[in-house]
């Protein structure tokens, strides 16, 4: 397993309401959506940045937990 990938930081997203959407955004010259997930209330998604993912967008009520702290989307 690649050392960089095995030590990458994870981000935890917990939906506070049903219908919360999480999008993965691509790297490169043009930023595009390459993956999406829809979460129901209470569901948790664990994600990380990869060679293909440079950004993560969250739409809806959720808690986003990182090593830098917790963000509440407050929608």
From TrEMBL:
Transmembrane annotation, as ranges: none
Entry-linked InterPro entries: MtrB, Trp_RNA-bd_attenuator-like_dom, Trp_RNA-bd_attenuator_dom
SUPFAM superfamilies, per the entry: TRAP-like
Keywords: RNA-binding, Transcription, Transcription regulation
Domain Tryptophan RNA-binding attenuator protein: start-end pairs: 7-74
Pfam family, one: TrpBP
Subunit structure: Oligomer of 11 identical subunits arranged in doughnut-like structure.
Membership in a protein family: Belongs to the MtrB family.
Protein name per Swiss-Prot or TrEMBL: Transcription attenuation protein MtrB
């Amino acid at each position: 397993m690649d050392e960089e990938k095995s030590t990458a930081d994870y981000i935890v997203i917990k939906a506070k309401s049903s219908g919360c959407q999480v999008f993965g955004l691509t790297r490169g010259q043009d930023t595009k959506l390459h993956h999406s997930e829809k979460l129901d209330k209470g569901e948790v998604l664990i994600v990380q940045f990869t060679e293909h993912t440079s950004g993560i967008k969250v739409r809806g009520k959720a808690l986003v937990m990182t090593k830098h702290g917790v963000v509440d989307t407050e929608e």
